[in-house]
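Hi again,

Forgot to attach this to my earlier email, sorry! This is the prediction with FE2/S2 (inorganic) cluster bound. I've pasted everything inline since the attachment limit keeps bouncing my files.
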Amino acid sequence: MNDWDVRVTVNGVPHRRTTQARTLLSDFLRHELGLTGTHVGCEQGACGSCTVLVDGEPVRSCLMFAVQADGQQVETVEGLAGDAELSGLQDAMMREHGLQCGFCTPGVLMTLTAAERAGCSAEEAAGPQLGGHTCRCTGYAGIRAAIERHWSRRKDS
Ligand code: FES
Ligand code: FES
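Structure tokens for the complex follow:
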């Protein structure tokens, strides 16, 4: 018996699926739930593209089995924007041209969202937090400018 019953809440929506024990959380999100905003790059935990939040913590979804997320809350990039507007971070990324091909962007946004919630400074966000992500387009200048813009807007509000 290799099939497991997985119940998981993703972006506030409860899901229940039967899946193989070996199914990665990244594949579960993309192929079972159709949430293709989570990208898969290295599949080795190195690039950060597949980062999602599980119970609020950033995780590499290519290193986690879907069954390990059973009963937990998962957040993906699809859950960041409201019905009519982007999240503050998404808006800053757009305005500062923080993405080129956009492949790394969902993972970067999820890590930065967790960093923001944890009260990280802009320096921490642009340094160690962003350091866990590989942008193949070498677009870090724009991402750092977006972090600067977003964190300074928060200070001013
Ligand atoms: S695809 Fe998961 S860390 Fe690269
Ligand atoms: S924008 Fe292309 S990989 Fe980062």
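The first helix runs from residue 25 to 32. Residues 68 and 134 are 25 Å apart (CA to CA).

That should be everything now.

G.
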